[in-house]
Amino acid sequence: MRRYIGGALMLLLFAGLISCGKQEEKKEAGKIEEKKEVKVGEETKLPEGHPAIGGSGKDTIAGDMDSKVIGDVNKSAVGHPSSGEVKREVRVPDEVKAKWKTVNLKLVDKEKKKEEIIIVTVGKEAPIKGTKLAIKAEVFLPHYTMYDTYISSKSNEPVNPAVLVELLENGKSITKGWVFTNFTAFNSYKHARYEILLPPISLK
């Protein structure tokens, strides 16, 4: 009889140990799952201001690339500094100086509603008939391009023609600025009465 009772107690103890073991396994498994969730949460939490990972992140990178390309194209095609930007040195390549000796400028008299073409030698002044004014074409660049620290011509072809003009009265400078053929909205030369335009450049 005692043998049977002892056997039954042993079975109960064994069953209890198995049950406790399973509960411990569940607890451990729960801890492991809990650690995984926390870890994933920590990995996906990004610093403030950081672009999200995934589609939006790729879009951000693509957007940056697109902006960069557009910026480079604008520099090559227009390259005009925005207002307030530090003035850059202008470097004219020797081949440009050798090829482009003169430039045709269109002078528009807004008051008299007249316009005329004036041929100006680069680096020199040309008088405006009937006035005490003169136009100076200080620099001509057939392919105006703005680099980090200077402005120059990327090639010797009239891809993006631009001229740095100056309006003078009795030899004194009144106004000065860049005039573009293709992008007149970027012209920095401004005058209330006399507008200066750079007509399309024909190949020479």
What is shown here, in short?
Helices cover 35% and strands 28% of the residues. The protein has 204 residues and is of the alpha+beta class.
Q: Gap between N and C termini, in Å?
A: 124 Å
- Return the structural class: alpha+beta
Strand content: 25-35%
- What is the helix content? 25-40%
Strand arrangement in the largest pleated sheet? 4-5-8-9
The string of secondary-structure elements, in order, is: HHEHEEEEEEEEE
Q: Layout of SSEs?
A:
Blueprint: H1 2-44, H2 55-77, E1 89-90, H3 94-99, E2 102-109, E3 114-121, E4 125-127, E5 133-141, E6 144-146, E7 150-153, E8 162-169, E9 172-180, E10 194-197
Parallel strand pairs: 1-7
Antiparallel strand pairs: 2-3, 2-10, 4-5, 5-8, 6-7, 8-9
